[in-house]
Amino acid sequence: MDWNEYDAALFDLDGVITPTAEVHMRAWDKMFNDFLRDRGVEEPYTDADYFTYVDGKPRYDGVRSFLASRGITLPDGDPSDPASAETVSGLGNRKNADLEEILAKEGVSPYPGSVKLVKALAERGTKMAIVSSSRNAAAVLTAAGMIEHFPVIVSGKEAGERGLAGKPAPDTFLAAAEDLGVPKERAVVFEDALSGVAAGHAGDFGLVIGVNRGVGADALIEHGADVVVDDLAELVEGAEVTA
């Protein structure tokens, strides 16, 4: 690709910059399957459920979406609900507690290929932002040693504070481009989630790159990716082209 055609790169975090998508998957699996067993539901939560109902969405939307797939309705509750509460918010907070425990024990390292691309873009002066549904984005970036490259972070926390609709709506990506001072047509979206590439497509950005971490290239293209790569290192050579 010719990076001279673009002025900004808008990255999802989990599964694009860091492999924390795997940690999220484990945390969701533990929380949902514990919940289902306690309710006597025989059909377990699976990785397929993660990609279909949860991946890329704001935390409570993911809870609500999966529960609906099993015909389960819970009150929304409030974000301040304890992790023990039988509410959408309570389950979301329970998952987050599991996530924080895993991160504290195991830490997080960024994908080497993603580090290569981010550093190459930084050298050529491309503006960069993180656009993540996770409320833990800043903490994860700090733990991964990558936060210095992203002056703009639009996470689930900022989205809530600013009243921005979550993915698959394009609002958070549009806000990040605006914060960077770059027209959407000059910005590239990087996403590994179906809801994320759908958001990039809906926002009519200059380019939407799907990062295939397991959901499948065909599915990413079907939901709005213009290009699919398995690793961001594939784009480093093009990033080194100077304006």
Could you explain how this protein is built, in words?
- This protein has 243 residues and is an alpha/beta fold.
- It has eleven helices and six strands.
- It has two domains: 149 residues, HAD superfamily/HAD-like (Rossmann fold, 3-Layer(aba) Sandwich); 85 residues, DNA polymerase, domain 1 (Orthogonal Bundle).
- Helices cover 47% and strands 10% of the residues.
- The longest helix is centred in the first third of the chain and has 19 residues.
- The radius of gyration is 18 Å and the shape is globular.
- The model has no long low-confidence stretch (mean pLDDT 92).
- This is Beta-phosphoglucomutase.
- Keywords: Carbohydrate metabolism, Isomerase, Magnesium, Metal-binding, Phosphoprotein.
- GO terms for molecular function: beta-phosphoglucomutase activity; metal ion binding.
